[in-house]
Amino acid sequence: SASWVWQPIQGARPFLELTGTGAGEVGSVCGAATDGSAFVWTQYSGWNGTNWDNIDIMTAAYTANLDTLAPKKLRAAPGGSSIGVCLRWKVQAGYAATYEHSANDAKSDYRSYLVRLSDGVMWEIPARPGRRFGIPSYITETEMALEEGIVLPSDAGVVGNESWSIVRYPLSLLGAGIPP
Predict the structure, then answer these.
(1) Cβ neighbour number for residue 165 with a 10 Å cutoff
(2) How confident is the model at residue 179 (pLDDT cuts 50, 70, 90)?
């Protein structure tokens, strides 16, 4: 799978050319986003027949000419995570944020992450009990905002979550973060 970009003159094209599924080869790219200064995406390599051996969070300086794109690995995704699986990253103010769900697709098994682009330090944003964060809305130097939904029991008779709201989360509450 690939993320695509569209430009007025060139039209649609893959954001990054996929090279294969072996170790070190780009097998899938998802969630590419930019703030006009940096690109961020999730990149998969090393398909072993069941899972990807490597799931990495990547960045590159923004360029309108994708032939000059210079990808750089920010960090590996958190252990065995499916982070960013075709979920869009939000890129702003020197950070990128996304939310992910485990491979078992359990409604209650969602996590939100923030990554600093300068050094790859990552934070998991802790959700309140009985709630989960969803799509990040914005990021500044001092806070981020995320959707928050109430986690409903599987027998509640509704699909997904209800009662979404926006939560402003101060970055000062996150602590030192997890180095790459």
Answers:
(1) 10
(2) very high
